[in-house]
Amino acid sequence: MKALVCHVNGSIELMDCPIPVMKDDKDAIIEVTLSTICMSDLHIMHQTVPRAKPETVLGHEFTGRVMEVGSGVTNIKPGDRVAVNCITFCGECYFCREGYINNCEKGGWELGCRIDGCQAEYVRVPFADMGLTKIPDSVKDEEALFLGDILSSGYFGADLAEIKPGDTVAVIGAGPVGLCAMMCAKLFGASRIIAVDIDESRLQLALKQQLADTVFNPAVCDIEEEIKKLTAGRGADGVIEAAGGRDTFSLAWKAARPNGVVALVAMYEENQELPLPKMYGKNLIFKTGGVDAVHCERLMRLIEAGKIQTNFLITHRASLNDIVEGYRVFGNKEDGCIKWAVTPYER
């Protein structure tokens, strides 16, 4: 089969690889029907993900068709259409029982990082009963594509931010995760959502999709002051940092009101400074971590009911044959690229 491999030097190559085989009775083999490229794939290429293993097939965000299941798999069967969780988790260890699946003692972020991922024709998914969500007949692959990663990440950020009805929420970064965080913040009852980004086209997309009520560009205004003007001098009740830029962590805590919550769902490539003397007395709560994507069933129901719609994020589409070009366009944000959808390999 064809698969995109990340080599030890960070270069990527579409190459011939063996079709995956079952290794455990809780595994499933999935034929990939639609996948996409994620910023964390680029972080692996940039060699800023310590847990990543070289010579691994990239990718962790996809839908597919079940081809084979192990004897220990009971919730799915061959032929089922599924969306796949980006996190591999056993469902039985201490962290899984507490809902912290990203810290699963037997898993975590594995697909496309430590084991072969989905930018291929087929993929092996461990703990299939935990990590696969059936796609209803009324839901298209495009509508379910982002369920197990960026939509779950946005929901995770909104959940971490402890949003209450009527809150003002600032989302730093209007990329795929940030846009998903905005739509989820509305579900949690936020009355005003402020989108912050240096890319004007992405800010306009947030407005067009009615995900944000107000947008600010830190290149042209003082974000902290502008948010205070909208909140009687207080600042945002909750801030979701979904950008992971050089200065966005600082921007996030400055935008929050005293006793507010700052939820950090971005992946950084550089260490961030926590200037405790400057923020002393602001009494902020910081929450951070990789996505605990435990709400896939709930999110799928919301998609099916039409309460969440994410396929507008797909701005580019091409077969696996052209995935290297997809990385170039997506990585450079060329041609207004938000998400590049990868269709099956064409022979």
What does this molecule look like?
The chain is an alpha/beta fold and 347 residues long. It has helices spanning 39-45, 94-97, 128-131, 141-144, 147-160, 176-187, 200-208, 223-230, 248-255, 276-279, 296-304, 323-332, and strands at residues 2-6, 12-16, 28-36, 56-57, 62-69, 81-84, 122-125, 132-134, 168-172, 192-196, 214-216, 236-241, 256-264, 285-288, 314-319, 339-343. The strands form 3 sheets. Strands 3, 5, 6, 7, 8, 15 and 16 form a 7-stranded mixed sheet that branches. The longest helix has 14 residues, at 147-160. The radius of gyration is 20 Å and the shape is globular. The mean pLDDT is 96.
What topology does this entry show?
Elements: E1 2-6, E2 12-16, E3 28-36, H1 39-45, E4 56-57, E5 62-69, E6 81-84, H2 94-97, E7 122-125, H3 128-131, E8 132-134, H4 141-144, H5 147-160, E9 168-172, H6 176-187, E10 192-196, H7 200-208, E11 214-216, H8 223-230, E12 236-241, H9 248-255, E13 256-264, H10 276-279, E14 285-288, H11 296-304, E15 314-319, H12 323-332, E16 339-343
Parallel strand pairs: 9-10, 9-12, 10-11, 12-13, 13-14, 15-16
Antiparallel strand pairs: 1-2, 1-4, 3-5, 3-7, 3-16, 5-6, 6-8
